[in-house]
Amino acid sequence: MFTEERYNIILQELKQKGIVSVTDLVNILDASESTVRRDLNSLDSEGLLKKIHGGAILIGESTSKHDYQVNVRQTLNSEEKKLIAKYAAGLIKENDVIYLDAGTTTELLIDFIEAKNITVVTNGISHAKKLLEKGIKTFILGGELKAVTEAIVGSSAVDDLKKFNFSKAFLGTNGVSNKNGYTTPDMNEAMVKAEAMKRSSESFVLADQSKLEEVSFITFGAITDSTLITIKINGNNNSYDTNVIGVVKND
């Protein structure tokens, strides 16, 4: 396939979906990963798309403003997400009662849980399955199943949450900023996140660097309502005083 043909296909995919991953483009174009990355670099330098870790988005778009299919989100910023997930899992202690939010980073957290005697409540379908496979006592919320994020959301899920009290909650987010707090595009998901945060003695929001200083539609918590676990690499950011994996609390 000629270079220009690949460019056209990439741009058409972006126009339809708003975001594309390198993995998907390798399959669609029947090209090597190095060829796809080179194409994305070229299109980025020409101002036709914006490269992000693991893929690309339309110019003027932000990953914080939309919910994308789980299989797409799993390919983005994957190494950062693993570091964040491992750090977060280390905070879980024996006898904790945990709320685990749906999301790709929170799902990765399950792989690193070492505590055995814990109870976990989740609104993530895939999360529940992985937790059971690890022999962890698991409850899943009832409510509307959102196809894009594979999360159980809405007022029924919120009502279910009111039965529980958590020692710790681990939440995902689409955007985080000092001014607007923790944000997500969907009201039904925001309701669940906010209630889980409220019912937890400690809550932690897991966010890779692509979420920092991004703002989505609905705020589900102020920056001081939860502890942010993030990683910021080779950059200065006045809002988040860290350059390594760690916990940042903005008081």
Automatic annotation (TrEMBL):
<dbReference type="InterPro" id="IPR001034">
    <property type="entry name" value="DeoR_HTH"/>
</dbReference>
<dbReference type="GO" id="GO:0003700">
    <property type="term" value="F:DNA-binding transcription factor activity"/>
</dbReference>
<keyword id="KW-0238">DNA-binding</keyword>
<dbReference type="InterPro" id="IPR001845">
    <property type="entry name" value="HTH_ArsR_DNA-bd_dom"/>
</dbReference>
<dbReference type="InterPro" id="IPR037171">
    <property type="entry name" value="NagB/RpiA_transferase-like"/>
</dbReference>
<dbReference type="InterPro" id="IPR036390">
    <property type="entry name" value="WH_DNA-bd_sf"/>
</dbReference>
<dbReference type="InterPro" id="IPR018356">
    <property type="entry name" value="Tscrpt_reg_HTH_DeoR_CS"/>
</dbReference>
<dbReference type="InterPro" id="IPR014036">
    <property type="entry name" value="DeoR-like_C"/>
</dbReference>
<dbReference type="Pfam" id="PF00455">
    <property type="entry name" value="DeoRC"/>
</dbReference>
<feature type="domain" description="HTH arsR-type">
    <location>
        <begin position="1"/>
        <end position="82"/>
    </location>
</feature>
<keyword id="KW-0805">Transcription regulation</keyword>
<protein>
    <submittedName>
        <fullName>HTH-type transcriptional regulator FruR</fullName>
    </submittedName>
</protein>
<dbReference type="InterPro" id="IPR036388">
    <property type="entry name" value="WH-like_DNA-bd_sf"/>
</dbReference>
<dbReference type="Pfam" id="PF08220">
    <property type="entry name" value="HTH_DeoR"/>
</dbReference>
<feature type="domain" description="HTH deoR-type">
    <location>
        <begin position="3"/>
        <end position="58"/>
    </location>
</feature>
<dbReference type="InterPro" id="IPR050313">
    <property type="entry name" value="Carb_Metab_HTH_regulators"/>
</dbReference>
<dbReference type="GO" id="GO:0003677">
    <property type="term" value="F:DNA binding"/>
</dbReference>
<keyword id="KW-0804">Transcription</keyword>
